[in-house]
């Protein structure tokens, strides 16, 4: 009896091992395909996380990480007591709220509109035209905006002056900075961001629409009762992931649009890190600022995911 049980156990282990080897052989091309991305994430995302230790030090490049003096939470205390902290937080939150309220729904709306187009050639042409700005550098986008709307030599302002109309001063107007930033983001990324929604729309069972037509539902009813519920989980997951960068509005775009006249509304944590950390060499302090941003993003993602799971929706994990 004991020997037969041992043989059964050995046989099951051999079968499990054989099945595992077969699975690896079958899925090997897929693992090989994701290997470069996996290595890139390890090298550029996880390994550099060791550097956050300098946020608890008075880091000196000459002494290195292990030779620098430990200061505990001094840099975090300085951040929260900094005179500029509330301004930085307010500007960052306002830009992110504008982004979530206006930019986040834009790709969804574009995907829904494109999904209703029945002419294939028109749909393909429109997709290509809207995708193209994604491949244009933000430096070029801002450069075109400056060439067109610069207060002194901009083409639009020269035209307005020739027509006897007042010049457009939007690039120097703090009240218009946020909307210019938003419109450039929408123009550049709305087509590319819509790809995942278009993929989700393509996976909807056509028989659902056929049944709705039989019940007398018009296009609006079909969108409201079939299309939107079918992509709701995708929208929710992307929204949760978006919250992870709620304190991170990006450096390049803000920095390119920033000037002394709009600094009061354009100065955010990312530009502050560049100014203090890179230009003034306060690496430990700005690392603490970056760690603060990451912790806030992590808390928001975990909280939103927990709320989604409790409400019966699919979360990120």
UniProtKB/TrEMBL annotation:
Taxonomy, superkingdom: Bacteria
ABC transmembrane type-1 domain span: 89-304
Membrane topology: Multi-pass membrane protein
GO biological process: transmembrane transport
The UniProt record lists the keyword Electron transport: no
UniProt keyword annotations, A-Z: Cell membrane, Membrane, Transmembrane, Transmembrane helix, Transport
PROSITE patterns for the chain: ABC_TM1
CDD domains reported in the protein's UniProt record: TM_PBP2 (cd06261)
Subcellular location as annotated: Cell membrane
Gene Ontology cellular component list: plasma membrane
Keyword Metal-binding: no
One Pfam family this sequence matches: BPD_transp_1
Transmembrane segments: 30-56, 93-114, 135-159, 179-202, 223-241, 285-308
Record's signal peptide: none
Entry's family note: Belongs to the binding-protein-dependent transport system permease family.
Full protein name: Sugar ABC transporter permease
């Amino acid at each position: 009896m004991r020997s037969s049980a041992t043989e059964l156990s050995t046989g099951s282990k051999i079968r499990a091992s054989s099945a595992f080897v077969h699975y690896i052989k079958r899925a090997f091309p897929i693992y090989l395909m994701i290997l470069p991305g996996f290595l890139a994430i390890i090298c550029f995302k996880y390994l550099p996380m060791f550097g956050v230790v300098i946020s608890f030090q008075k880091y000196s490049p000459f002494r290195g990480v292990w030779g620098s003096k430990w200061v505990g939470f001094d840099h975090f205390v300085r951040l929260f007591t900094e005179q500029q902290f509330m301004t930085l937080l307010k500007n960052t939150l306002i830009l992110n709220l504008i982004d979530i309220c206006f930019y986040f729904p834009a790709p969804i709306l574009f995907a829904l509109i494109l999904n209703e187009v029945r002419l294939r050639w028109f749909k393909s042409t429109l997709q290509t035209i809207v995708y193209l700005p994604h491949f244009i550098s933000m430096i070029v986008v801002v450069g075109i905006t400056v060439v067109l709307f610069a207060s002194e030599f901009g083409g639009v302002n020269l035209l307005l002056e020739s027509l006897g109309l007042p010049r457009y001063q939007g690039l120097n107007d703090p009240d218009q900075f946020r909307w210019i930033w938003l419109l450039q983001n929408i123009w550049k990324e709305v087509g590319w961001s819509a790809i995942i929604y278009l993929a989700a729309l393509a996976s909807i069972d056509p028989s659902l629409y056929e049944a709705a037509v039989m019940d007398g539902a018009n296009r609006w009813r079909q969108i409201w009762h079939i299309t939107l519920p079918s992509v709701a989980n995708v929208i929710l997951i992307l929204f949760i992931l978006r919250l992870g960068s709620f304190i991170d509005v990006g450096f390049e775009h803000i920095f390119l649009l920033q000037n002394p006249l709009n600094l009061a509304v354009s100065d955010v944590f990312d530009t502050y890190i560049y100014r203090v950390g890179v230009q003034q060499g306060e690496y430990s302090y700005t690392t603490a600022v970056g760690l603060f941003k990451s912790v806030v993003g992590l808390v928001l993602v975990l909280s939103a995911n927990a709320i989604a799971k409790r409400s019966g929706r699919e979360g990120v994990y």
